[in-house]
Amino acid sequence: MPFADLSIMDYLSRIVDIFLVWYVIYKLLMIIRGTKAVQLLKGIFVIIIARFVSEYLNLHTLSWILENAITWGFLGIIIIFQPELRRALEQLGRGSIFTRGGIQEEEELQQRVTAITDAISYMAKRRIGALISIERETGMGDYIETGIPLHSNLTSQLLINIFIPNTPLHDGAVIIQKNQIAAAACYLPLSESPFISKELGTRHRAAVGISEVTDALTIIVSEETGHVSVSQHGELFRDLSPEEFKELLEKEWTKQTSSSLWKRKGKKQDG
User: Fold this and answer.
1) Residue 138: which of 208, 212, 215 has the closest Cα?
2) How far apart are CA 228 and CA 220, in angstroms?
3) From 46, 88, 214, 258, which residue has the greatest number of CB atoms within 10 Å?
4) CATH number, domain 104-269, options 3.30.1330.10, 3.40.1700.10, 3.40.50.150, 3.40.50.300
């Protein structure tokens, strides 16, 4: 039907149709994000592209093989993506498929915050020294390469085990990327600022040093006192209570305006 013959309602219905299809595809991609199905989906796209290329180049045998693979591949897709399809149908039945994105991000944020706060609380009470740097906008690939790659899920148990004294990975920094522990035993640059208190050791100088060259949020647990400190933007904030630390971590990870804790007197040390 020519576009000139379409009524306003026809235009609106087609726009709504396109929007709904786009939204459903987007939600389905969000469901499989972070799963092995993403790699399988990339493989399917490669096969489809190869099919068109082979037809364009008149590669008849390859084109026939790929055409049959695509024709009969739908059954394979149902089998391969069975866990994801089942999960999508379950969420559709619960009416949660259209709200999953925000809920999932909130759940992941709370899991990360809980894992770090639990680990920091455990180590602070037992005076286990720790140095944890959380990557933000500035990449920390150069510093990750100096350590031992882990690429493990972020859990409080793993963080605690890494920093247990006299273990192979305890000496150095842990670098966190999103919801993963990217590497341990990493070397961070030491700050040369003359304004850092002489009573502070290598961990605190490394925390300030990395904050001078990146926007990373770095957490320090003192093995002498058990006090928790945080460094960012070249500044060091010492002796945070568990409540202050958790609030700061949540606000920084959600990229909200910095908490008033950063401005409170008695917490800021020149660095």
Assistant:
1) 215
2) 6
3) 214
4) 3.40.1700.10
